[in-house]
Amino acid sequence: MSFSSDVKAELCRAALSRRCCAQAEAYGVLLYCNQFTGREVRITTESPDFAARLPALFQKAFQIAFDRLPVTGAGKRTFAIRDGDKLSALWTAFGHDPAETLAHHINFAVLEEEHCRTAFFRGAFLAGGSVTDPAKRYHLELATPHLSVSRELRALLLEAGFTPKETTRKSNSVTYFKQSEAIEDFLTAIGAPLAAMQIMNAKAEKDLRGSINRRVNCDAANLDKAVDAAQGQIEAIYQLEARGMLEELPDKLKEAVDLRVAHPELTLSQLAELCDPPVSKSAFNHRLRKLMELARR
Known about the structure:
Layout: H1 3-11, H2 19-32, E1 35-36, E2 41-45, H3 48-62, E3 77-81, H4 84-93, H5 114-128, E4 129-131, E5 140-144, H6 147-159, E6 165-169, E7 172-177, H7 180-190, H8 193-242, H9 251-262, H10 268-274, H11 281-296
Antiparallel strand pairs: 1-2, 2-3, 4-5, 5-7, 6-7
Helix pairs in contact: 2-3, 2-5, 7-8, 8-11, 9-11, 10-11
Domain Sporulation regulator WhiA C-terminal: 212-295
Pfam family, one: LAGLIDADG_WhiA
Protein name: Probable cell division protein WhiA
């Protein structure tokens, strides 16, 4: 199952307790489903959990049953209502008249309570929503064929403290989030806190992996610099040797020469500890810089 399917499964575990919330959730489903007209309601879904919830949801909200139920074992499950009386009951419940309605709009009067707005968001996501696996990227969207509904949904989300973006894709209007925190907050609000926690965990794992990669890259870069520096120092020593200058060096520089040539793989700190007596890293580095300077001269 996809992450989006898992989210819908979690949402469908929410109890259908209040009739007003059931109607609000069904309202979201209707405005974000495949078709909601004066002639037909058609809802198609691949989620078995949403398919199992739909008959109970419409019974709780409107006391009506679907005229068409999905075929057993079908991948895509389609529900439909074509009975005129049932369709009239749906339109009336939300204060609309199909004969006078040119375009769908959200009736804010039926979503005055916060719990009803949350149920509406849940229904919209169940019918027209999807969310990407957070291990890949962060993206949650709600798609509807009704432009006015999409714009009004954005107004509702802004009022609820969310900041979604909008776009169009083919014949659909899309409201979406791309920030992980916004997706986490939205899923928690509509009843999927476990899915929100998965996103948090995936983000933490990505951050940890990125931190480790940066550390490894940094260590590798530092090692490359150290190797290059050691090679340059040894080349300078060979130049001094070729000129017969090593025997003229002070004892401290001779010690630095011996240690650097004998241990080309060690860091400055390690070489400084091998001095007799041990010296600081900066003091040993100063001796090597002196050798480099003499070689350049």
